[in-house]
Design a protein that fits this description.
single chain, mainly alpha, 10 helices, 83% helix
Length: 212
């Protein structure tokens, strides 16, 4: 069955699985931003923790995605709900770029700019909000952009534990040895990643223009 024909026959299911995929990615990215940006800020204030935190997030990235889902299955509260487990796994995978870019962006603010802010009497908190974060925002957004694309791709694995999403089509197609069903999940996921990358890229470029 051609891919276009599959889409026309199963539009409702495609819409449902796309919605599930968006929900998994959206909630995961909210958690990643809420945790990763403050953690990156903390590392800029506590450089001694950099090795431990970035090392830990690097190790998580080396674990195969399906293996990470499997490792989290025995956890009582998570294992009872596939969507909870998937969201945690996706959040862990996407954490590194956001933490690293936030830390890099803040520590990369020029020393003369910091000295000028101190000379104006800004407190450390005011310097963070009015100087460091605005200047670091394009780099932070680049990390969020990378993390979002990673999450859209890895979210297809969530179907392996029953969390839904476009991976349902991919795994079903593999079991049926049907390329059209595989592509019915792979093509929308790829388009979703491209759209997210384009949208965040435009936002990133607009922030760079504002800075200059």
């Amino acid at each position: 069955m051609p891919v276009i024909a599959f889409f026309s026959v199963d539009r409702r299911q495609l819409a449902t699985l796309t919605g599930e995929h968006l929900w998994l990615v959206g909630i995961s990215m909210l958690i990643v931003v809420a945790v990763g940006v403050p953690l990156g800020i903390l590392l800029s204030r506590r450089p001694g923790w950099r090795g431990i935190v970035l090392g830990s997030t690097n190790v998580i990235q080396t674990i195969p995605s399906l293996a990470l889902f499997g490792l989290l299955l025995p956890v009582p509260w998570l294992g009872a709900r596939a969507d909870r487990l998937a969201i945690l796994a996706l959040s862990l995978y996407a954490l590194l770029p956001v933490v690293r870019n936030t830390y890099t962006g803040i520590t990369g603010v020029d020393a003369p700019v910091r000295e000028a802010a101190i000379g104006m009497g800004l407190t450390p908190w005011q310097m963070l909000w009015h100087v460091e974060l605005p200047l670091a925002s394009p780099i932070i957004l680049a990390g969020i952009r990378t993390a979002t694309v990673i999450t859209v791709g890895v979210a297809t694995i969530a179907a392996a534990i029953g969390a839904g999403g476009l991976g349902d089509f991919i795994f079903r197609g593999l079991s049926m040895v049907d390329n059209s069903v595989i592509l019915a999940g792979a093509i929308p996921a790829a388009l979703m990643a491209l759209f997210a990358d384009l949208l965040l890229g435009l936002l990133q470029r607009s922030l760079v223009r504002v800075r200059h």
